[in-house]
UniProtKB/TrEMBL annotation:
The gene is panC. Catalyzes the condensation of pantoate with beta-alanine in an ATP-dependent reaction via a pantoyl-adenylate intermediate. Keywords: ATP-binding, Cytoplasm, Ligase, Nucleotide-binding, Pantothenate biosynthesis. This is Pantothenate synthetase. NCBIfam families: cyt_tran_rel (TIGR00125), panC (TIGR00018). It comes from Cognatishimia activa.
Length: 279
């Protein structure tokens, strides 16, 4: 496994793959890897000859500096996991390489970035598309894998890839969960024991919504909100029920697949969960 820290070294490595006629699958991450990330790696391996992983805690997608500073990091452990999984190339770029001096270029999906979670976290998705477009350019992969856990992010990246005609297939990978149902996240380690237990309310509320007989946007929303509000340690931050691909508003009885995007805070830690529900 090659570990590179500059764009030039990355290009040398990917150039060698490409001249050998090999395809490249990319998995962008912010590190502190867990089984969710490794599922993306496994998917990339099944779709391409070589797998490249990037580890980059992207400053432009964090609203508050404190959230960026407290983001967990463990490069040595990450590299061990990636080596064990048979990854070919890891790019760990420097902030000054990704955002060179005098940088003034942004990439933004103008509608999708500023609705739903984007309203709660202004600028977040602009930061995501700006960095992913750059990572796509550094690595020039044939396929790239993203988790359905960050559902709006996945749809935004699909739209950006189409709009900018990146010749890259975007693959969405279902959420990997802990045994008790909590969606795996690098942020979970920041939860204290009580909040870790309380956070199960996220997946439980989605189970309750999915089990409803007569599904309407209102019945889904009420079921989820009531379940979350019954947990005193949870502060509901976002509950959106939208058309699964366009993220357009939905109302009334469910007639098309709907994506439920849920976020809540537990002791200052923002957690996400998501489910696509069919009528
Ligand atoms: P992050 O390091 O949090 O930026 O995540 C990197 C990628 O892993 C993103 O595409 C996430 O959607 C994906 N991911 C994170 N957690 C999970 C999970 N529990 N299951 C599947 N994919 C995940």
């Amino acid at each position: 496994m090659q570990v590179v820290r500059t764009i030039a070294d990355c290009r040398t490595a990917t150039g060698a793959f490409r001249s050998a006629g090999e395809t490249i699958g990319l998995v962008p991450t912010m590190g502190f890897l867990h089984a969710g990330h490794m599922e993306l790696v496994a998917t990339a391996k099944s779709k391409a000859d070589r797998v490249a992983v990037t580890i980059f805690v992207n400053p432009t997608q964090f609203g508050e500096a404190s959230d960026l500073d407290s983001y967990p990091r463990d490069e040595e452990r990450d590299l061990e996991m990636l080596r064990a999984a048979g990854v070919d190339l890891v790019l760990i770029p420097d902030v000054s390489d990704v955002y060179p001096d005098g940088d003034e270029t942004i990439v933004e999906t103008t509608r999708m970035a500023n609705i739903l979670h984007g309203e709660v976290r202004p600028g977040h998705f602009r930061g995501v598309t700006t960095v992913v477009a750059r990572l796509f350019n550094f690595v020039q992969p044939d396929v790239a894998c993203f988790g359905e856990k960050d559902y709006q992010q996945l749809q935004i990246i699909k739209r950006m890839t189409r709009d900018l005609a990146f010749p890259i297939e975007i693959i969405g990978v279902p959420i990997v969960r802990e045994n008790d149902g909590l969606a795996m996240s690098s942020r979970n380690v920041r939860l204290n024991a009580e909040d870790r237990q309380a956070a199960l309310v996220l997946s439980r509320s989605l189970d309750a919504a999915e089990a409803l007989k007569n599904k309407s946007v209102d019945s889904l929303r009420d079921t989820i909100a009531n379940t979350i509000h019954a947990e005193p340690r949870a502060t509901l931050r976002g509950l959106d029920i939208v058309q699964a691909e366009s993220l357009a508003d939905l109302a009334g009885p469910l007639t098309t697949p709907a994506a439920i995007m849920l976020s809540a805070e537990f002791g200052g830690v923002l957690l996400l969960d998501q489910r696509v529900i069919t009528p």
